[in-house]
Amino acid sequence: MTDDLPHLVRELVRGRDRAALATALPGPADQAGWPYASLVLVAVDHDLAPILLLSDLADHSKAIAADDRVSLLFDGTAGLDQPLTGPRVSLLGRAQQTDDSRLKQRFLAHHPDADLYAGFADFKFYRVALERAHLVAGFGRIRWLSGAELVDTRLAPAFAAFAAAEDGILAHMNADHSDAVQLYATRLLGHPAGDWKMTGIDAEGLDLRCGGKVARLAFETRLAAPAQARNALVSLTAKARAAASRAPG
């Protein structure tokens, strides 16, 4: 296994907007503990902690109330003729309700339609504190990784700095440089043209959405602080415009 596997996990998770959530159902002694998997929308924080928005009426919310241990499967095999050759990762951790307004905003930036029901009394936000992950990167590339391997806690100051600067960067890019955002999606990632929006930015890349489609664009090198984001975005814009100028027609 190479040292790139933690980075592969981070990009795989950050590039998905949904996951299969597995919990242990509560109930009478002869029924409790049955594994239960369901589809959920997900965003992840700068430290890779998944953020969920769940209804109290859902079975998985009742399960978490009884046993906070959860697993989230992120599937990166879509479109492959042989899906088992593609990457997927299961994150394991403990889910706890949160009233952190920043986490709510990060989730809603990635899932704007969720704003329609996020304020309902029965919906709650959850943060999953990661403990470990199981990565299958293809045949023969299988490994368990600890939370410390996935995200270096020494980078916590950088996580906090990007979290504080993120809303301003997104607002600026979507309002003043929407043309560049479109080029990121179409010229650098090869997606069809559309109303692409930047929904997140972290030290390793940026997130995009157009309707039901999401995309992830990684930076060439990891950024140490938000002050470096401008140069990174300018460089990506120049690269995208150069690609556009070479396009036929």
Number of strands: 11
**pLDDT < 50 stretches:** none
| Helix content, binned percent | 25-40%
Order of helices and strands: HEEEEHEEHEEHHHEEEH
Quick check: average pLDDT? 94
The CATH architecture of the largest domain would be Roll
From the spread of the alpha carbons, the general shape counts as: globular
CATH class membership of the largest domain: Mainly Beta
CATH superfamily of the largest domain: Electron Transport, Fmn-binding Protein, Chain A
Tell me the CATH topology of the largest domain.
Pnp Oxidase, Chain A
Oligomer: single chain
**Major sheet size, sense and barrel closure:** 8 strands, antiparallel
Provide the domain count: 2
* Terminal residue distance: 44 Å
Helix-strand category: alpha+beta
Helix tally equals 7
Strand content: 25-35%
> What is Rg?
19 Å
Features:
249 residues; alpha+beta; Pnp Oxidase, Chain A; Split barrel-like; 2 domains; eight-stranded antiparallel beta sheet; 33% helix; globular
Can you describe what's shown?
The protein has 249 residues and is an alpha+beta fold. It has helices spanning 5-14, 59-66, 101-110, 147-150, 156-176, 178-188, 229-246; strands at residues 18-24, 35-41, 43-44, 50-55, 69-75, 88-98, 123-136, 142-146, 197-202, 205-210, 213-218. It has two domains: 5-151, Electron Transport, Fmn-binding Protein, Chain A (Pnp Oxidase, Chain A, Roll); 159-246, Split barrel-like (Alpha-Beta Barrel), CATH 3.20.180.10. The protein contains seven helices and eleven strands. Helix 5 (156-176) crosses helix 6 and helix 6 packs across helix 7 (229-246). It starts with a helix and ends with a helix.
